[in-house]
């Protein structure tokens, strides 16, 4: 929980009292590699703070996985639309390594936020950070070539290049695995 508390303090001022009010909404959960934090079709009822490991968000399009995001330590994984609108999730979130998360239960979080305005502020700031990350990723695909997207990941998300398989990374970048191999070869020479 130390990492979570540091994450919270990076967003807002948070006293011991606020932390105590937040505790009922939090549970530590463990997922093995391949386990689902959220399945497509389920309604997302939590925010998942990644303490250890990483997970991916992906769509199944005609039996092919299309990776749209990766969540590493000290990030929050969720489906904002499903979480907020109570709609079934169009994508899945799956652990790619043995993963430990702190789960923020939606109903308990809303109840805590109703009693403590600082928790409401925290929730809003977490969702803003998630939305900002999604906006950055959307810009990658609208403004950059595949080679530029790879260079951006190299500079800003090196852990992604070290930990994510080539197949998943090529899917995320929207290119064939062979194209990714050529880009990597050019950049290393």
UniProtKB/TrEMBL annotation:
Query: Entry's InterPro entries?
Result: cNMP-bd_dom (IPR000595), cNMP-bd_dom_sf (IPR018490), RmlC-like_jellyroll (IPR014710)
Cyclic nucleotide-binding domain sequence ranges = 10-109
Pfam families from the UniProt entry: cNMP_binding
Q: Could you list the residue ranges that cross the membrane?
A: none
Report the domain of life of the source organism: Bacteria
Question: What SUPFAM superfamilies does this protein's entry cite?
Answer: cAMP-binding domain-like
Q: What is this protein called?
A: Crp/Fnr family transcriptional regulator
The record lists the organism as Chitinophaga flava
């Amino acid at each position: 929980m130390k990492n979570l508390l540091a994450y919270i303090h990076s967003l807002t001022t948070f006293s011991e009292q606020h932390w105590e009010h937040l505790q009922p909404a939090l549970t530590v959960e463990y997922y093995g590699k391949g386990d689902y934090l959220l399945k497509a079709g389920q309604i997302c009822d939590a925010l998942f703070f990644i303490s250890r490991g990483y997970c991916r968000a992906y769509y199944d399009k005609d039996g092919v996985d299309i990776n749209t995001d990766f969540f590493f330590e000290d990030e929050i994984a969720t489906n904002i639309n499903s979480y907020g609108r109570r709609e079934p999730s169009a994508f899945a979130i799956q652990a790619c390594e043995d993963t430990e998360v702190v789960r923020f239960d939606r109903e308990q979080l809303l109840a805590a936020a109703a009693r403590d305005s600082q928790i409401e502020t925290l929730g809003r700031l977490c969702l803003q950070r998630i939305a900002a990350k999604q906006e950055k990723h959307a810009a990658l695909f609208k403004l950059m070539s595949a080679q530029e997207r790879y260079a951006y990941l190299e500079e800003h998300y090196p852990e992604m290049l070290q930990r994510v398989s080539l197949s998943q990374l090529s899917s995320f970048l929207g290119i064939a695995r062979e194209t990714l191999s050529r880009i990597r070869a050019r950049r290393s020479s």
